[in-house]
Design goal:
The chain has 307 residues and is of the alpha/beta class. 38% of the residues lie in helices and 14% in strands. It is built from 10 helices and 7 strands. The protein has a 7-stranded mixed sheet with strand order 1-2-3-4-5-6-7. The protein is globular.
């Protein structure tokens, strides 16, 4: 069992507030080149330092590969880093993302789950490459890998970039419009594990399961209630109250939902690349509410206090 401890006594001691609306310097949803981000874990840690972050979580898609590198650089800057990952799953046929906050590191069950997700992504990449060969993208898998620039799992944006570099399409937008968008030839559906299965992996590692960006799944409020109920029944305990920029009225309503269900609230920018609208720590202001911050969870108080 590999473990990434969260308490580092060499870093400075900081105490986070017990309300979400007064928090500063916290971002619990960040991506690096270990999945689909554009900065290495080290570069991301440097940017977090420049942005004044004190407590962060690296939440790459379905992997913990960048955590140790990020931890070493965060330690240098005095930043407290939480081992984490954003895991893919489904509920009633809807693709969901669940952030696993892992104060005690990983476990055999979680490691096996991550391996299964990596295998599913590899099979999907091969199928996308096979389909795109029929529209003129020769050696598509290798081309997409070159565009990715690393051994991380490939995604449709990598194949879109490969289509552009091969001269099949003039730009990324056209690549998705013709070949990679919903229902197109290169849109290969993933068969993600069920919500309860993924939450089970997280609980096996003594982690906290967090619904990522719950407002982005196109659900009605009623359907989101049903999803939260299923999530809680499986052992889930938190959801992101704020993810990047959000409408204030919608965020207030989401706070009421989380309070009704007794879920902890998390916050994060969902940062992927510099130069866009979002940077580490860039989120809409959390509203005043009764929702407890996720770092008030008994398992995360050490992380919150910097012990």
């Amino acid at each position: 069992m590999s473990v990434f401890p969260t308490d580092d006594r060499e870093t400075r001691s900081l105490t986070l507030p017990e309300t979400l609306e007064s928090v500063r310097g916290v971002d619990l949803h960040l991506h690096s080149t270990s999945s689909d981000g554009k900065l290495s874990p080290t570069e991301l840690a440097d940017l977090c330092h420049a942005r004044g972050m004190t407590h962060v979580a690296l939440t790459d898609h379905d992997t913990l590969d960048g955590v140790e590198e990020a931890r070493q650089r965060c330690r240098h800057h005095g930043i407290h880093l939480m081992a984490a990952a954003e895991l893919s799953c489904q509920w009633r046929g809807i693709a969901l993302h669940i952030v696993a906050l892992l104060p005690h590191g990983t476990s055999r069950a979680l490691d096996a789950g991550l391996a299964s997700l990596a295998h599913a992504r590899e099979l999907r990449s091969r199928e996308i490459a096979h389909r795109l060969e029929k529209v003129g993208l020769d050696d598509g898998l290798a081309r997409a890998r070159r565009e990715a620039g690393s051994e991380r799992p490939l995604g449709r944006p990598d194949f879109a970039a490969a289509l552009v570099s091969a001269g099949v399409v003039p730009d990324i937008k056209t690549a998705f419009k013709r070949y990679l968008g919903a229902g197109k030839r290169g849109d290969v559906r993933m068969h993600w594990p069920e919500l309860a299965t993924v939450v089970g992996w997280i609980r096996d590692a003594q982690g906290i399961a967090v619904v990522a960006h719950p407002l982005r799944y196109g659900m009605t409020r009623r359907k989101r209630d049903l999803m939260f109920s299923a999530f809680i029944e499986a052992g889930g305990e938190a959801a992101e109250l704020v993810s990047g920029y959000q409408n204030p009225d919608t965020t207030h309503d989401l706070a009421r939902q989380l309070d009704f269900h007794g879920l902890y609230g998390s916050i994060g920018s969902d940062f992927h690349y510099p130069g866009g609208a979002l940077s580490p720590g860039t989120i809409s202001p959390p509203p005043r509410s009764h929702v407890e911050p996720v770092w008030c969870h008994p398992s995360l108080r050490g992380f919150a206090c910097g012990e």
